Protein backbone atom coordinates (compact mmCIF):
# COMPACT_ATOMS: atom_id res chain seq x y z
CA UNK A 1 0.00 0.00 0.00
CA UNK A 2 1.36 3.39 -0.93
CA UNK A 3 1.85 5.90 1.85
CA UNK A 4 -0.54 8.30 0.12
CA UNK A 5 -3.37 5.92 0.86
CA UNK A 6 -2.95 6.24 4.60
CA UNK A 7 -5.36 8.73 5.97
CA UNK A 8 -5.11 10.51 9.26
CA UNK A 9 -8.18 12.63 9.32
CA UNK A 10 -8.37 13.47 12.97
CA UNK A 11 -7.12 16.89 13.99
CA UNK A 12 -4.08 15.50 15.71
CA UNK A 13 -2.32 17.47 18.36
CA UNK A 14 0.29 19.51 16.69
CA UNK A 15 3.95 18.73 16.91
CA UNK A 16 4.84 22.14 15.68
CA UNK A 17 3.99 24.18 18.68
CA UNK A 18 6.40 27.08 18.80
CA UNK A 19 8.50 27.71 21.87
CA UNK A 20 7.30 30.69 23.76
CA UNK A 21 9.92 33.42 23.85
CA UNK A 22 11.32 33.79 27.32
CA UNK A 23 11.79 37.52 26.97
CA UNK A 24 8.40 39.04 27.64
CA UNK A 25 7.47 42.41 26.30
CA UNK A 26 6.04 44.69 28.90
CA UNK A 27 3.84 47.64 28.13
CA UNK A 28 4.59 50.54 30.38
CA UNK A 29 6.05 50.39 33.80
CA UNK A 30 4.10 47.87 35.79
CA UNK A 31 6.37 46.64 38.48
CA UNK A 32 8.52 43.57 38.34
CA UNK A 33 7.73 40.89 35.76
CA UNK A 34 5.95 37.96 37.29
CA UNK A 35 8.23 34.97 37.81
CA UNK A 36 5.43 32.84 36.29
CA UNK A 37 5.76 34.62 32.97
CA UNK A 38 8.75 32.65 31.91
CA UNK A 39 8.21 29.25 33.37
CA UNK A 40 9.83 26.51 31.39
CA UNK A 41 8.16 24.39 28.75
CA UNK A 42 5.57 26.84 27.54
CA UNK A 43 4.74 26.76 23.85
CA UNK A 44 2.47 28.67 21.54
CA UNK A 45 0.22 26.67 19.33
CA UNK A 46 -1.37 28.42 16.37
CA UNK A 47 -4.15 25.85 16.34
CA UNK A 48 -5.12 26.89 19.81
CA UNK A 49 -5.26 30.50 18.71
CA UNK A 50 -7.06 30.10 15.40
CA UNK A 51 -9.12 26.94 15.82
CA UNK A 52 -11.65 27.29 18.60
CA UNK A 53 -13.67 24.20 17.81
CA UNK A 54 -11.84 21.62 15.69
CA UNK A 55 -14.89 19.50 14.89
CA UNK A 56 -16.58 22.49 13.24
CA UNK A 57 -13.55 24.16 11.67
CA UNK A 58 -12.77 23.91 7.98
CA UNK A 59 -10.21 25.60 5.77
CA UNK A 60 -10.94 27.13 2.37
CA UNK A 61 -8.95 28.84 -0.33
CA UNK A 62 -10.03 32.26 -1.62
CA UNK A 63 -10.43 33.05 -5.29
CA UNK A 64 -11.25 36.53 -6.60
CA UNK A 65 -10.58 40.12 -5.53
CA UNK A 66 -13.95 41.48 -4.44
CA UNK A 67 -13.20 41.11 -0.72
CA UNK A 68 -9.88 42.97 -0.72
CA UNK A 69 -11.52 45.85 1.12
CA UNK A 70 -11.92 43.48 4.06
CA UNK A 71 -8.34 42.25 3.83
CA UNK A 72 -9.19 39.02 2.05
CA UNK A 73 -7.06 38.45 -1.01
CA UNK A 74 -6.94 35.97 -3.81
CA UNK A 75 -5.13 32.84 -2.64
CA UNK A 76 -5.62 33.45 1.09
CA UNK A 77 -6.70 30.65 3.39
CA UNK A 78 -9.89 31.08 5.37
CA UNK A 79 -10.49 29.50 8.77
CA UNK A 80 -14.22 28.81 8.76
CA UNK A 81 -16.13 27.87 11.91
CA UNK A 82 -19.57 26.34 11.47
CA UNK A 83 -20.39 26.43 15.17
CA UNK A 84 -20.70 30.21 15.16
CA UNK A 85 -24.15 31.64 14.51
CA UNK A 86 -23.77 34.35 11.87
CA UNK A 87 -24.48 37.91 12.98
CA UNK A 88 -24.44 41.09 10.93
CA UNK A 89 -20.86 42.21 10.39
CA UNK A 90 -19.48 38.68 10.23
CA UNK A 91 -17.57 37.54 7.19
CA UNK A 92 -19.42 34.42 6.10
CA UNK A 93 -19.14 31.55 3.68
CA UNK A 94 -22.45 31.04 1.94
CA UNK A 95 -23.88 28.72 -0.65
CA UNK A 96 -25.47 30.77 -3.38
CA UNK A 97 -26.98 29.06 -6.40
CA UNK A 98 -24.82 26.01 -5.97
CA UNK A 99 -21.60 27.93 -5.46
CA UNK A 100 -19.45 28.56 -2.38
CA UNK A 101 -18.85 32.28 -1.89
CA UNK A 102 -17.37 34.49 0.82
CA UNK A 103 -19.03 37.80 1.68
CA UNK A 104 -19.79 40.09 4.59
CA UNK A 105 -23.19 39.53 6.14
CA UNK A 106 -24.99 42.80 6.77
CA UNK A 107 -28.41 44.19 7.49
CA UNK A 108 -29.39 47.15 5.30
CA UNK A 109 -32.73 48.61 6.32
CA UNK A 110 -33.38 45.43 8.36
CA UNK A 111 -33.02 43.22 5.31
CA UNK A 112 -30.12 40.77 5.09
CA UNK A 113 -27.48 41.26 2.42
CA UNK A 114 -24.20 39.73 1.33
CA UNK A 115 -21.76 42.58 0.77
CA UNK A 116 -18.42 42.81 -0.98
CA UNK A 117 -15.44 44.80 0.15
CA UNK A 118 -15.40 46.68 -3.12
CA UNK A 119 -17.76 49.39 -4.34
CA UNK A 120 -17.90 47.92 -7.81
CA UNK A 121 -20.04 45.06 -6.53
CA UNK A 122 -23.54 45.85 -5.27
CA UNK A 123 -24.83 44.18 -2.10
CA UNK A 124 -26.74 40.99 -2.85
CA UNK A 125 -30.11 40.69 -1.11
CA UNK A 126 -30.29 37.25 0.47
CA UNK A 127 -34.05 36.95 0.41
CA UNK A 128 -34.17 36.91 -3.39
CA UNK A 129 -31.70 34.07 -3.66
CA UNK A 130 -31.32 30.41 -3.09
CA UNK A 131 -28.86 31.10 -0.31
CA UNK A 132 -27.65 29.18 2.73
CA UNK A 133 -25.08 30.26 5.27
CA UNK A 134 -22.33 27.66 5.46
CA UNK A 135 -20.06 29.00 8.16
CA UNK A 136 -18.46 32.06 9.71
CA UNK A 137 -14.90 33.10 8.88
CA UNK A 138 -12.85 33.42 12.05
CA UNK A 139 -9.58 34.41 10.51
CA UNK A 140 -7.70 34.86 7.26
CA UNK A 141 -4.24 33.54 6.67
CA UNK A 142 -2.21 35.54 4.20
CA UNK A 143 1.16 34.09 3.30
CA UNK A 144 3.84 36.18 1.65
CA UNK A 145 6.23 34.70 -0.86
CA UNK A 146 9.56 34.50 0.94
CA UNK B 1 -31.47 5.49 28.06
CA UNK B 2 -29.43 4.83 24.95
CA UNK B 3 -29.33 6.91 21.82
CA UNK B 4 -28.37 5.89 18.32
CA UNK B 5 -27.14 8.63 16.02
CA UNK B 6 -27.08 7.59 12.40
CA UNK B 7 -25.72 9.79 9.62
CA UNK B 8 -28.16 9.96 6.73
CA UNK B 9 -26.70 8.64 3.46
CA UNK B 10 -23.32 9.28 5.02
CA UNK B 11 -20.92 9.11 2.07
CA UNK B 12 -23.17 11.19 -0.18
CA UNK B 13 -23.79 13.68 2.62
CA UNK B 14 -20.01 14.13 3.07
CA UNK B 15 -19.69 14.96 -0.61
CA UNK B 16 -22.61 17.39 -0.50
CA UNK B 17 -21.13 19.46 2.32
CA UNK B 18 -18.53 20.74 -0.13
CA UNK B 19 -20.46 20.48 -3.35
CA UNK B 20 -23.76 22.25 -2.90
CA UNK B 21 -24.60 21.49 -6.52
CA UNK B 22 -25.10 17.86 -5.60
CA UNK B 23 -28.04 18.79 -3.37
CA UNK B 24 -31.23 17.28 -4.74
CA UNK B 25 -29.35 15.38 -7.45
CA UNK B 26 -29.35 11.57 -7.55
CA UNK B 27 -25.80 10.75 -6.39
CA UNK B 28 -24.04 7.42 -5.99
CA UNK B 29 -20.65 6.65 -4.53
CA UNK B 30 -18.73 3.83 -6.16
CA UNK B 31 -16.18 1.45 -4.79
CA UNK B 32 -12.80 2.16 -6.30
CA UNK B 33 -11.87 -1.12 -7.82
CA UNK B 34 -14.84 -3.00 -9.08
CA UNK B 35 -16.88 0.08 -9.78
CA UNK B 36 -20.17 -0.80 -8.17
CA UNK B 37 -22.44 1.48 -6.17
CA UNK B 38 -21.76 1.32 -2.42
CA UNK B 39 -23.72 4.37 -1.26
CA UNK B 40 -26.79 6.13 -2.62
CA UNK B 41 -28.60 9.38 -2.07
CA UNK B 42 -32.35 9.25 -1.43
CA UNK B 43 -32.97 10.41 -5.00
CA UNK B 44 -30.92 7.53 -6.39
CA UNK B 45 -32.71 5.05 -4.14
CA UNK B 46 -36.02 6.35 -5.42
CA UNK B 47 -34.90 5.71 -9.00
CA UNK B 48 -34.66 2.06 -8.04
CA UNK B 49 -30.86 1.80 -8.18
CA UNK B 50 -29.85 -1.01 -5.85
CA UNK B 51 -26.80 -1.31 -3.62
CA UNK B 52 -24.02 -3.06 -5.50
CA UNK B 53 -25.22 -2.18 -8.98
CA UNK B 54 -22.20 -2.25 -11.32
CA UNK B 55 -21.31 1.26 -12.43
CA UNK B 56 -21.26 0.37 -16.13
CA UNK B 57 -24.95 -0.48 -16.00
CA UNK B 58 -25.59 3.11 -15.00
CA UNK B 59 -23.33 4.66 -17.63
CA UNK B 60 -26.29 5.76 -19.77
CA UNK B 61 -27.86 7.69 -16.94
CA UNK B 62 -24.50 9.30 -16.20
CA UNK B 63 -24.05 10.31 -19.84
CA UNK B 64 -27.53 11.80 -19.94
CA UNK B 65 -26.63 13.84 -16.88
CA UNK B 66 -29.46 12.33 -14.88
CA UNK B 67 -27.28 10.93 -12.12
CA UNK B 68 -23.81 11.59 -10.70
CA UNK B 69 -21.42 8.83 -9.72
CA UNK B 70 -18.39 9.57 -7.54
CA UNK B 71 -15.43 7.44 -6.54
CA UNK B 72 -15.23 6.77 -2.84
CA UNK B 73 -13.17 9.25 -0.88
CA UNK B 74 -12.42 7.39 2.35
CA UNK B 75 -10.08 10.11 3.53
CA UNK B 76 -12.96 12.57 3.53
CA UNK B 77 -15.44 10.13 5.07
CA UNK B 78 -12.99 9.21 7.84
CA UNK B 79 -12.45 12.86 8.72
CA UNK B 80 -16.14 13.71 8.70
CA UNK B 81 -16.93 10.67 10.84
CA UNK B 82 -14.32 11.77 13.39
CA UNK B 83 -15.91 15.23 13.46
CA UNK B 84 -19.39 13.82 14.07
CA UNK B 85 -17.99 11.69 16.87
CA UNK B 86 -16.25 14.70 18.37
CA UNK B 87 -19.45 16.75 18.42
CA UNK B 88 -21.25 13.85 20.09
CA UNK B 89 -18.46 13.54 22.66
CA UNK B 90 -19.00 17.18 23.47
CA UNK B 91 -22.77 17.04 23.86
CA UNK B 92 -23.44 13.61 25.29
CA UNK B 93 -22.33 11.53 28.23
CA UNK B 94 -20.38 8.98 26.21
CA UNK B 95 -20.01 7.69 22.66
CA UNK B 96 -19.61 4.17 21.31
CA UNK B 97 -18.87 4.11 17.61
CA UNK B 98 -20.75 1.25 15.99
CA UNK B 99 -19.76 1.88 12.41
CA UNK B 100 -18.34 4.76 10.43
CA UNK B 101 -21.76 6.41 10.27
CA UNK B 102 -23.55 5.11 13.37
CA UNK B 103 -22.78 5.84 16.98
CA UNK B 104 -24.47 4.89 20.20
CA UNK B 105 -24.56 7.61 22.84
CA UNK B 106 -25.40 7.46 26.53
CA UNK B 107 -28.45 9.48 27.43
CA UNK B 108 -28.83 8.85 31.14
CA UNK B 109 -29.94 11.29 33.76
CA UNK B 110 -32.57 13.16 31.80
CA UNK B 111 -36.16 13.58 32.81
CA UNK B 112 -38.46 12.18 30.12
CA UNK B 113 -39.55 15.62 29.02
CA UNK B 114 -35.93 16.81 28.75
CA UNK B 115 -34.90 13.88 26.67
CA UNK B 116 -36.57 14.99 23.47
CA UNK B 117 -35.13 18.49 23.80
CA UNK B 118 -31.69 17.05 24.34
CA UNK B 119 -31.98 14.70 21.37
CA UNK B 120 -33.14 17.58 19.17
CA UNK B 121 -30.19 19.64 20.33
CA UNK B 122 -27.79 16.89 19.29
CA UNK B 123 -29.58 16.50 15.98
CA UNK B 124 -29.22 20.21 15.27
CA UNK B 125 -25.63 20.58 16.53
CA UNK B 126 -24.19 17.75 14.47
CA UNK B 127 -25.86 19.15 11.37
CA UNK B 128 -24.68 22.68 12.02
CA UNK B 129 -21.10 21.90 13.05
CA UNK B 130 -20.29 19.23 10.51
CA UNK B 131 -22.86 19.72 7.77
CA UNK B 132 -23.88 16.07 8.07
CA UNK B 133 -27.61 15.37 8.52
CA UNK B 134 -28.32 12.72 11.14
CA UNK B 135 -31.24 10.82 12.63
CA UNK B 136 -31.45 10.33 16.38
CA UNK B 137 -33.29 7.51 18.09
CA UNK B 138 -33.43 7.26 21.88
CA UNK B 139 -34.83 4.31 23.84
CA UNK B 140 -34.18 2.14 26.90
CA UNK B 141 -32.25 -0.52 24.95
CA UNK B 142 -30.03 -0.70 21.88
CA UNK B 143 -32.53 -2.75 19.92
CA UNK B 144 -35.27 -0.22 20.61
CA UNK B 145 -32.87 2.65 19.88
CA UNK B 146 -32.27 1.09 16.47
CA UNK B 147 -36.01 1.00 15.83
CA UNK B 148 -36.46 4.53 17.12
CA UNK B 149 -33.74 5.67 14.76
CA UNK B 150 -35.42 3.98 11.82
CA UNK B 151 -38.67 5.70 12.66
CA UNK B 152 -36.88 9.04 13.06
CA UNK B 153 -35.52 8.63 9.55
CA UNK B 154 -38.58 7.22 7.80
CA UNK B 155 -41.53 8.96 9.42
CA UNK B 156 -41.59 12.65 8.41
CA UNK B 157 -43.61 13.58 11.49
CA UNK B 158 -40.61 12.85 13.75
CA UNK B 159 -38.38 15.31 11.88
CA UNK B 160 -35.30 13.22 12.43
CA UNK B 161 -35.64 12.58 16.16
CA UNK B 162 -37.61 9.84 17.90
CA UNK B 163 -37.64 9.08 21.61
CA UNK B 164 -39.27 5.84 22.72
CA UNK B 165 -40.25 5.37 26.33
CA UNK B 166 -41.42 1.97 27.55
CA UNK B 167 -45.15 1.38 28.13
CA UNK B 168 -46.02 4.19 25.82
CA UNK B 169 -48.80 3.99 23.23
CA UNK B 170 -46.48 5.42 20.59
CA UNK B 171 -43.94 2.69 21.30
CA UNK B 172 -46.56 0.02 20.97
CA UNK B 173 -47.84 1.54 17.78
CA UNK B 174 -44.36 1.60 16.30
CA UNK B 175 -43.60 -1.99 17.28
CA UNK B 176 -46.88 -3.16 15.79
CA UNK B 177 -45.97 -1.54 12.51
CA UNK B 178 -42.46 -3.01 12.40
CA UNK B 179 -41.78 -6.18 10.45
CA UNK B 180 -39.61 -8.73 12.20
CA UNK B 181 -36.93 -8.50 9.55
CA UNK B 182 -36.39 -4.88 10.52
CA UNK B 183 -35.53 -5.76 14.10
CA UNK B 184 -31.83 -5.63 14.94
CA UNK B 185 -30.41 -9.13 14.97
CA UNK B 186 -33.37 -10.96 13.47
CA UNK B 187 -32.26 -12.56 10.22
CA UNK B 188 -34.29 -13.91 7.34
CA UNK B 189 -34.27 -17.50 8.53
CA UNK B 190 -35.53 -16.51 11.95
CA UNK B 191 -38.33 -14.50 10.37
CA UNK B 192 -39.61 -17.64 8.63
CA UNK B 193 -39.40 -19.82 11.73
CA UNK B 194 -41.11 -17.21 13.88
CA UNK B 195 -43.86 -16.69 11.31
CA UNK B 196 -44.85 -20.33 11.80
CA UNK B 197 -45.48 -19.51 15.46
CA UNK B 198 -47.61 -16.56 14.46
CA UNK B 199 -44.96 -14.00 15.39
CA UNK B 200 -44.91 -11.45 12.60
CA UNK B 201 -44.22 -8.03 14.04
CA UNK B 202 -41.81 -6.57 16.54
CA UNK B 203 -44.77 -6.25 18.89
CA UNK B 204 -45.56 -9.97 18.61
CA UNK B 205 -41.96 -10.77 19.48
CA UNK B 206 -41.99 -8.36 22.39
CA UNK B 207 -45.02 -10.23 23.78
CA UNK B 208 -43.31 -13.61 23.58
CA UNK B 209 -42.04 -15.35 26.69
CA UNK B 210 -38.26 -14.84 26.75
CA UNK B 211 -37.60 -18.21 28.38
CA UNK B 212 -39.67 -20.07 25.79
CA UNK B 213 -37.83 -18.22 23.03
CA UNK B 214 -34.54 -19.21 24.60
CA UNK B 215 -35.53 -22.89 24.65
CA UNK B 216 -36.74 -22.93 21.06
CA UNK B 217 -34.18 -20.60 19.56
CA UNK B 218 -31.18 -19.10 21.28
CA UNK B 219 -29.93 -16.83 24.01
CA UNK B 220 -29.40 -14.20 21.38
CA UNK B 221 -33.05 -14.09 20.43
CA UNK B 222 -34.07 -14.17 24.07
CA UNK B 223 -32.01 -11.05 24.58
CA UNK B 224 -33.68 -9.42 21.61
CA UNK B 225 -37.07 -10.13 23.19
CA UNK B 226 -36.00 -8.58 26.48
CA UNK B 227 -34.54 -5.61 24.68
CA UNK B 228 -37.82 -5.08 22.84
CA UNK B 229 -39.52 -5.14 26.22
CA UNK B 230 -37.24 -2.33 27.30
CA UNK B 231 -34.62 -4.20 29.31
CA UNK B 232 -31.12 -3.48 28.04
CA UNK B 233 -29.08 -6.68 27.72
CA UNK B 234 -27.04 -6.41 24.56
CA UNK B 235 -23.53 -5.11 24.71
CA UNK B 236 -22.00 -3.46 21.72
CA UNK B 237 -19.60 -6.17 20.68
CA UNK B 238 -22.08 -8.96 21.04
CA UNK B 239 -20.42 -11.77 19.16
CA UNK B 240 -23.63 -13.36 17.95
CA UNK B 241 -25.09 -10.37 16.15
CA UNK B 242 -25.15 -10.92 12.44
CA UNK B 243 -23.77 -7.80 10.98
CA UNK B 244 -23.47 -5.54 8.06
CA UNK B 245 -20.43 -4.01 9.66
CA UNK B 246 -17.83 -5.48 11.90
CA UNK B 247 -16.51 -3.67 14.86
CA UNK B 248 -14.16 -5.01 17.47
CA UNK B 249 -13.03 -2.93 20.38
CA UNK B 250 -12.43 -3.17 24.06
CA UNK B 251 -11.17 -1.07 26.90
CA UNK B 252 -7.58 -1.78 27.83
CA UNK B 253 -6.98 -3.19 31.28
CA UNK B 254 -5.21 0.01 32.21
CA UNK B 255 -4.27 3.24 30.54
CA UNK B 256 -1.35 2.81 28.21
CA UNK B 257 0.78 5.06 26.07
CA UNK B 258 3.07 2.34 24.84
CA UNK B 259 3.01 2.04 21.07
CA UNK B 260 3.91 -1.63 21.18
CA UNK B 261 1.01 -2.41 23.47
CA UNK B 262 -1.40 -0.44 21.36
CA UNK B 263 -0.07 -2.17 18.29
CA UNK B 264 -0.78 -5.50 19.86
CA UNK B 265 -4.30 -4.57 20.90
CA UNK B 266 -5.14 -3.22 17.47
CA UNK B 267 -3.62 -6.29 15.85
CA UNK B 268 -5.82 -8.56 17.95
CA UNK B 269 -8.94 -6.61 17.11
CA UNK B 270 -8.08 -6.62 13.42
CA UNK B 271 -7.46 -10.34 13.52
CA UNK B 272 -10.70 -11.01 15.32
CA UNK B 273 -12.51 -8.78 12.83
CA UNK B 274 -11.02 -10.63 9.88
CA UNK B 275 -12.13 -13.93 11.39
CA UNK B 276 -15.69 -12.70 11.76
CA UNK B 277 -15.52 -11.43 8.22
CA UNK B 278 -14.65 -14.89 6.93
CA UNK B 279 -17.26 -16.54 9.13
CA UNK B 280 -20.00 -14.58 7.49
CA UNK B 281 -18.45 -14.79 4.04
CA UNK B 282 -17.81 -11.11 3.49
CA UNK B 283 -14.99 -8.98 2.22
CA UNK B 284 -14.17 -5.50 3.50
CA UNK B 285 -13.14 -2.49 1.47
CA UNK B 286 -11.56 -0.35 4.17
CA UNK B 287 -10.37 -0.51 7.75
CA UNK B 288 -10.99 2.11 10.39
CA UNK B 289 -8.95 2.14 13.57
CA UNK B 290 -9.57 4.36 16.55
CA UNK B 291 -8.07 5.15 19.94
CA UNK B 292 -9.61 6.86 22.92
CA UNK B 293 -8.15 8.53 25.95
CA UNK B 294 -10.13 8.60 29.18
CA UNK B 295 -12.29 11.69 28.96
CA UNK B 296 -13.06 11.57 32.65
CA UNK B 297 -9.42 12.02 33.55
CA UNK B 298 -9.39 15.77 33.35
CA UNK B 299 -5.80 15.80 34.53
CA UNK B 300 -4.59 14.02 31.39
CA UNK B 301 -4.24 15.29 27.84
CA UNK B 302 -7.10 14.18 25.62
CA UNK B 303 -6.74 12.75 22.14
CA UNK B 304 -9.16 10.38 20.46
CA UNK B 305 -8.02 9.93 16.90
CA UNK B 306 -9.23 7.66 14.16
CA UNK B 307 -7.99 6.79 10.69
CA UNK B 308 -9.42 5.04 7.68
CA UNK B 309 -7.14 2.98 5.47
CA UNK B 310 -8.48 1.86 2.15
CA UNK B 311 -7.72 -1.71 1.16
CA UNK B 312 -6.32 -2.23 -2.34
CA UNK B 313 -9.29 -4.46 -3.10
CA UNK B 314 -12.10 -5.98 -1.07
CA UNK B 315 -10.54 -8.74 1.00
CA UNK B 316 -10.92 -11.03 3.99
CA UNK B 317 -7.20 -11.71 4.22
CA UNK B 318 -6.01 -11.17 7.77
CA UNK B 319 -2.61 -10.12 6.56
CA UNK B 320 -3.88 -7.25 4.44
CA UNK B 321 -6.30 -6.13 7.10
CA UNK B 322 -3.61 -6.23 9.77
CA UNK B 323 -1.21 -4.25 7.64
CA UNK B 324 -3.84 -1.61 7.01
CA UNK B 325 -4.72 -1.44 10.71
CA UNK B 326 -1.08 -1.06 11.64
CA UNK B 327 -0.57 1.73 9.11
CA UNK B 328 -3.64 3.48 10.45
CA UNK B 329 -2.30 3.26 13.98
CA UNK B 330 1.12 4.55 12.97
CA UNK B 331 -0.34 7.66 11.42
CA UNK B 332 -2.43 8.68 14.42
CA UNK B 333 -0.23 7.52 17.28
CA UNK B 334 1.29 10.34 19.31
CA UNK B 335 3.57 9.94 22.27
CA UNK B 336 2.52 11.20 25.63
CA UNK B 337 -1.17 10.33 25.51
CA UNK B 338 -2.51 7.59 27.72
CA UNK B 339 -5.13 5.62 25.87
CA UNK B 340 -8.00 3.77 27.45
CA UNK B 341 -9.59 2.07 24.52
CA UNK B 342 -8.94 1.11 20.95
CA UNK B 343 -10.70 -0.72 18.20
CA UNK B 344 -11.01 -1.73 14.60
CA UNK B 345 -13.97 -1.38 12.28
CA UNK B 346 -14.24 -3.11 8.95
CA UNK B 347 -16.08 -0.95 6.47
CA UNK B 348 -18.18 -1.45 3.38
CA UNK B 349 -18.57 -5.17 3.47
CA UNK B 350 -19.41 -7.11 0.34
CA UNK B 351 -20.55 -10.64 -0.13
CA UNK B 352 -17.43 -12.66 -0.86
CA UNK B 353 -19.16 -14.91 -3.36
CA UNK B 354 -20.65 -12.14 -5.39
CA UNK B 355 -17.40 -10.33 -5.81
CA UNK B 356 -16.83 -9.27 -9.38
CA UNK B 357 -13.61 -10.37 -10.93
CA UNK B 358 -11.42 -7.40 -11.50
CA UNK B 359 -10.25 -6.51 -14.99
CA UNK B 360 -6.82 -6.42 -13.53
CA UNK B 361 -7.07 -10.05 -12.56
CA UNK B 362 -4.53 -12.37 -14.06
CA UNK B 363 -4.36 -16.15 -13.71
CA UNK B 364 -1.47 -15.60 -11.30
CA UNK B 365 -3.63 -13.36 -9.17
CA UNK B 366 -6.41 -15.92 -9.17
CA UNK B 367 -3.97 -18.64 -8.09
CA UNK B 368 -2.63 -16.40 -5.41
CA UNK B 369 -6.14 -15.72 -4.22
CA UNK B 370 -6.84 -19.43 -4.02
CA UNK B 371 -3.71 -20.00 -1.98
CA UNK B 372 -4.54 -17.09 0.29
CA UNK B 373 -8.01 -18.46 0.78
CA UNK B 374 -6.67 -21.90 1.71
CA UNK B 375 -4.24 -20.36 4.12
CA UNK B 376 -6.96 -18.38 5.85
CA UNK B 377 -9.24 -21.40 6.02
CA UNK B 378 -6.45 -23.45 7.59
CA UNK B 379 -5.81 -20.66 10.05
CA UNK B 380 -9.44 -20.44 11.11
CA UNK B 381 -9.77 -24.21 11.41
CA UNK B 382 -6.71 -24.48 13.60
CA UNK B 383 -7.94 -21.68 15.82
CA UNK B 384 -11.38 -23.20 16.10
CA UNK B 385 -10.07 -26.67 16.92
CA UNK B 386 -7.16 -25.82 19.15
CA UNK B 387 -8.53 -22.65 20.69
CA UNK B 388 -8.63 -19.10 19.61
CA UNK B 389 -5.23 -17.52 19.12
CA UNK B 390 -3.36 -20.78 18.47
CA UNK B 391 -2.01 -19.42 15.22
CA UNK B 392 -1.47 -15.73 15.07
CA UNK B 393 0.06 -13.41 12.60
CA UNK B 394 3.13 -11.34 13.09
CA UNK B 395 3.66 -8.38 10.91
CA UNK B 396 3.75 -9.41 7.30
CA UNK B 397 4.04 -6.66 4.78
CA UNK B 398 2.63 -7.08 1.37
CA UNK B 399 2.84 -4.53 -1.34
CA UNK B 400 -0.02 -3.96 -3.63
CA UNK B 401 1.59 -3.40 -6.99
CA UNK B 402 -1.54 -2.39 -8.83
CA UNK B 403 -3.06 1.02 -8.65
CA UNK B 404 -6.48 2.04 -7.60
CA UNK B 405 -8.81 3.61 -10.03
CA UNK B 406 -10.45 6.66 -8.64
CA UNK B 407 -11.05 8.96 -11.58
CA UNK B 408 -14.18 10.43 -10.03
CA UNK B 409 -12.81 11.00 -6.59
CA UNK B 410 -13.61 14.40 -5.13
CA UNK B 411 -10.82 16.34 -3.44
CA UNK B 412 -9.90 15.59 0.16
CA UNK B 413 -11.49 18.86 1.17
CA UNK B 414 -10.66 18.64 4.84
CA UNK B 415 -7.33 16.86 5.04
CA UNK B 416 -5.02 18.18 2.32
CA UNK B 417 -3.78 21.73 1.97
CA UNK B 418 -3.70 21.59 -1.81
CA UNK B 419 -7.24 20.26 -2.10
CA UNK B 420 -9.15 22.80 0.00
CA UNK B 421 -12.54 23.93 -1.26
CA UNK B 422 -12.52 27.27 -3.07
CA UNK B 423 -14.63 30.15 -1.83
CA UNK B 424 -15.25 32.82 -4.48
CA UNK B 425 -15.29 36.39 -3.29
Short description:
The complex is a heterodimer of chains A (146) and B (425). Chain A is mainly beta and 146 residues long. Chain A folds into two domains: 40 residues, no CATH class; 88 residues, Umud Fragment, subunit A (Ribbon), CATH 2.10.109.
Architecture blueprint of SSEs:
The complex is a heterodimer of chains A (146) and B (425).
Chain A: E1 18-19, E2 43-44, H1 46-50, E3 57-63, E4 77-81, E5 91-96, E6 99-108, E7 111-115, E8 124-125, E9 131-141
Antiparallel strand pairs in A: 1-2, 3-4, 4-9, 5-6, 5-9, 6-7, 7-8
Chain B: E1 2-7, H1 10-18, E2 27-30, E3 37-40, H2 42-46, H3 59-63, E4 68-71, H4 74-91, E5 95-99, E6 102-106, H5 112-130, E7 134-139, H6 142-154, E8 161-163, H7 169-176, H8 188-196, H9 202-207, H10 210-216, H11 219-228, E9 246-256, H12 259-279, E10 282-293, E11 306-315, H13 318-332, E12 339-347, E13 350-351, H14 363-386, E14 422-424
Parallel strand pairs in B: 2-4, 7-8
Antiparallel strand pairs in B: 1-6, 1-7, 2-3, 5-6, 9-12, 10-11, 10-12, 10-13
Amino acid sequence: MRPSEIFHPHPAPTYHALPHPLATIRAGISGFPSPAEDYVGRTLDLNERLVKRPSATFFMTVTGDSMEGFGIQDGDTLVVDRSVDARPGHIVVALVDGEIIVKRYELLGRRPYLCSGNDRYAPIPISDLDCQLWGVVRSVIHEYPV
Amino acid sequence: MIGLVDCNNFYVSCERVFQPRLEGVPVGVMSNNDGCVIARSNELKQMGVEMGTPAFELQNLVNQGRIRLLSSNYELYGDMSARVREVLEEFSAGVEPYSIDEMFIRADGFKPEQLLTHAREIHRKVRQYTGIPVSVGVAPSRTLAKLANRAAKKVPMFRGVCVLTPDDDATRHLLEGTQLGDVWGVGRRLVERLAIMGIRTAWDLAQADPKAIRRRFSVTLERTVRELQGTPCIELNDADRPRDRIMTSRSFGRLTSDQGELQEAIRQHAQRGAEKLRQQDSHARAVLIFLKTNRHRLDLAQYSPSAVVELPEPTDDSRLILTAARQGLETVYRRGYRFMKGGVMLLDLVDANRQKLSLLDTPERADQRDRDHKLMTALDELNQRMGSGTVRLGMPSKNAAWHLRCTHRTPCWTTRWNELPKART
